[in-house]
Write a structure and sequence with these properties.
Number of domains: 3
Largest sheet: 8 strands, parallel
Strand order of the largest sheet: 9-8-7-3-2-1-11-10
CATH superfamily of the largest domain: Glycosidases
Strand content: 15-25%
Distance between the termini: 38 Å
Bound molecules: alpha-D-glucopyranose
Shape: globular
Number of strands: 19
């Protein structure tokens, strides 16, 4: 069994103290002027990431795919889509990533393949094909309707009728994304082989797409109706949210799979520790925490999406953090997600000052932060004209605002046309944000007040401060309702974080902490030394204060 322990020198492991940076490969850097980002493009920007101060990059899927869901419909788990480059480009990127002192995490999509994957082509060719049972097939009910009431996350029924085999197949997402049958040992073996393929090449870990979906109720029971608690607080409630999803995912035997996967990963730890972080949208915290495993022998971390579900105010945020801290199994490592390729951009949710506060929050909470490309610039959602819309979810459920294109637009590198993402005469696959002339790496680099400079400072402090990257967390009670204040401490180092979520000035009396030194403020106009008996925070201001212990 592999447990999560610091290495033999007492230092935290790379994925614990480090910061992960998510790259959506289509949108980071185009190197061959086709309007779509690619692997050589990413390689050409590694120096930027190294200087930014992140520790690992996670690439959304780079595999061959018909792109019905932009790569989350995989047609071959052990190859690279030509639009992103070649396997040689991948090997070069990995080598350069490691040479830059960074780690590389790949997206792994176990719940479903593309309907173009040769496995599914065989599976649907006949009921007698040896691969038929690799997917979730079921007979119609006597009246010809689907086997049960399960719904696709992207709208409509989760079952698709297949005339040739005379059966329905399950697709929890698009009908072009049929669900694999993980109870078939051959499926598990083939998928673990794919994992080994990349581990053998040297990747450092995996982000596991909808990790809790892979095991469903074997009896295929109907889901009961729900009172309608939305999946995401920032997305409106769709048809999917009319059910309680008791039976279409998360069957307890999912844990057996992740225990086995952990062993596969653990068998590589001899060279260097590898990791898996699962995308697990669960908000029953006991159930969520169960994915660490009873003996911390399953996923290294389930992503924690809790902050996306609570109101952006001090009390709600603190309550969420305290709940998660309380539910973590002993020795389990926390994490908090504020952004990714499925969520509205942070400034579009909380405003620009709120986004600065959010930067401080997530880089000072206990656990592993994951940034999404462009967060560090303050990139906001980009309105997409209807004729440029790409995301299949948005197209299937028009009017609901569920489309994810606004948060997937090209990275803004400089103030040239197309923001340095692709040459000026090329049309990028999604439009570049109209704010690119001011919101871009080159311009922000020279502006001490920019979001980029704030991220640099926070990342630098986090890296050099054991209290911040691996110390304890303790909320401070003597704070006004609108402020979230906490201590991070390791050995004799102690840092106080004070975050004002309101748009009014707040005065705090934290006399017990004496004096401190302001290390970073989300605003610029601060005296370096502060008396904590009289700490005033401007509207939406966050400060990081070093305390002499
Ligand atoms: C996950 C991915 C999302 C994708 C879906 C289906 O939620 O993050 O982008 O559409 O899974 O694979």
């Amino acid at each position: 069994m592999t447990t999560i322990r610091p290495d033999s020198n007492g230092s935290p492991l790379w994925w614990q103290s480090g910061v992960i940076y998510q790259i959506y490969p289509r949108s980071f850097q185009d190197s061959n002027a086709d309007g779509v980002g690619d692997l050589p493009g990413i390689a050409s920007r590694l120096d930027y990431l190294q200087a930014l101060g992140v520790d690992a990059i996670w690439l959304s899927p780079i595999y061959p795919s018909p792109m019905a869901d932009f790569g989350y419909d995989v047609a071959d788990y052990t190859a690279v889509h030509p639009i992103f480059g070649t396997m040689a480009d991948f090997d070069a990127l990995l080598a350069q990533t490691h040479a830059a002192g960074l780690r590389l995490i790949l997206d792994f999509v176990p719940n479903h393949t593309s309907d173009q994957h040769p496995w599914f082509v065989e599976s649907r060719s006949s009921r007698h094909n040896p691969r038929h049972d690799w997917y979730m097939w079921a007979d119609a009910r006597p009246d010809g309707s689907p086997p049960n009431n399960w719904l696709s996350v992207f709208g409509g029924p989760a079952w698709e009728w297949d005339g040739a085999t005379g059966q329905y197949y399950l697709h929890s997402f698009l009908k072009q994304q049929p669900d694999l049958n993980w109870r078939n040992p051959a499926v598990k073996a083939a998928m673990f082989d794919a994992v080994r393929f990349w581990l053998d090449r040297g990747v450092d870990g995996f982000r596991i797409d909808v990790a809790h979906y892979i095991m469903k109720d074997p009896q295929l029971r109907d889901n009961p109706p729900s009172s309608g608690d939305g999946r995401f607080i920032h997305k409106p409630i769709g048809e999917y949210d009319t059910q309680l999803h008791l039976y279409d995912h998360g069957h307890p035997d999912v844990h057996t799979v992740y225990r086995e996967l952990r062993q596969v990963l653990g068998s590589y730890d001899g060279s260097r520790p590898r990791m898996a972080v699962g995308e697990i949208h669960l908000f029953d915290w006991q159930e969520w925490a169960s994915y660490y495993g009873r003996n911390l022998d399953e996923l290294h971390m389930p992503f924690n999406f809790g902050l996306l579900k609570v109101e952006w105010q001090a009390r709600a945020v603190r309550q969420l953090v305290d709940t998660v801290e309380a539910v973590l199994p002993a020795g389990a490592w926390p994490n908090y997600v504020l952004s990714n390729h499925d969520e509205s951009r942070i400034p579009s949710r909380y405003g620009l000052a709120g986004a600065r506060l959010a930067a401080m929050l997530r880089l000072t909470l206990r656990g592993t932060p994951t940034l999404y490309y462009g967060d560090e610039l303050g990139m906001a959602d980009v309105p997409i004209p209807p004729d440029r819309e790409q995301d299949p979810w948005g197209k299937r459920e028009p009017g609901l605002g569920v489309g994810r294109d606004p948060e997937r637009t090209p990275m803004q590198w400089d103030d040239s046309p197309n923001a340095g993402f692709t040459p000026a005469n090329v049309e990028p696959w999604l439009p570049v944000s109209p704010d690119y002339r001011t919101v871009n790496v080159q311009t922000e680099r020279d502006d001490p007040a920019s979001m980029l400079n704030l991220y640099w400072q926070l990342l630098a402090w986090r890296r050099q401060s054991p209290a911040l990257h691996s110390g304890s967390y303790q909320p401070v009670e003597q704070a006004p309702d609108d402020c979230f204040v906490y201590l991070r401490r390791r050995a004799d180092e102690c840092v106080l974080v004070a975050l004002n979520f309101s748009n009014q000035e707040q005065r705090l009396n934290l006399r017990a902490f004496g004096e401190g030194k302001v290390l970073v403020s989300t605003r610029l106009d601060r005296a370096e030394r502060v008396r904590l008996a009289d700490l005033s925070l401007g509207s939406s201001e966050g400060v990081l204060i070093g305390l002499s212990s």
